[in-house]
Amino acid sequence: MGWMFESNLPIYLQIAKRLEREIVSGKIERGQPIKSVRDLASEAAVNPNTVQRAMQELENRHLVTVQRGGGRFVTEDEETIKAAGKRLAEEGIHTFAATMKHLGFSKEETLQLIEEEWNYGV
Amino acid sequence: MAYNLECTALTKSFGTIRALDNVNLQLEKGKIIGLLGPNGSGKTTLLKAAAGLLTPTTGQILIGGHQPGEETKAMVSYLPDRNYLNNSMKVSETLDLFEDFYTDFDRAKAEAMLDSLHIDRSQKYKSLSKGTKEKVQLVLVMARRARLYLLDEPIGGVDPATRDYILNTIVSNYAEDATVVISTHLITDIEPVLDEVLFLKYGQLVLHSTADQIREEHGKSVDEYFREVFRC
Asked: Which residue, of A67, A99, B129, B151, is most buried by count of CB atoms within 10 Å of its CB?
């Protein structure tokens, strides 16, 4: 079985985001090669062209570089990876804050819950 | 550069019924295309016309720039929506048949696929289950190195695990200069492997778009969008 996808977003963006997360979290390490388009397509059970587009997206964000002689590698540049991490965190916080506001929690109550979760949650 | 499949004002009538009504489309190489539409919308007719089995009433259909005929038969690998193999033949004999008939048939590849599907080649075709028959036919069709694959409902009769294997087979086996057209009702299953989608409605092409564009523009999966367009 391949990867699961949300129905409301283009698949290539979802693949790009998944790889971005793996780069930011260090699961795919800095300077290391990325799997080939064919292998990733097979693993995710998607079209190779879709993976290709996801790769271009990561290249545009400078997270992935194409080496001469072929092959893609995670950037060596720590700042770029940090910036990507910050962007992902901001997205997460934005969604979270919107949910809490929608549920009627104040900023203080929300921070209190975060505090508890951080210390005792799993 | 000619398109692998090009239709210009293609119309096919059966008596008073227009099975295909002024269809214009161009399919590029390297793409996997979903041919989607409700029952009776003209999917099979379009595939048959591309396979050279039906002559257009008016308009034109070209395969790699050629009119369907001797020359295009060698470029097109067609999987019909029904059994076309001789029931009294063994699976291995159907391999012989394809090897004789098609110069682009890769027997080793076909045998490898049959092995990974655990299909016994010494079995007679008629002793196979419905799903296994479908698997054999798909293996034969995908083991050719064609330019245009036309697959009419290739995953309808097989279980979900095999469906995954078959889709993977399709994705990993077509060459970069080939085009794959898949007609199906099981949109959710094939959606992740599609580049483009065609919607047919009463013989008319009502949509030709990329799968990601549908998601981007409508915030819906192709399956959800299909249900909206074709709501009964």
From this structure: B151
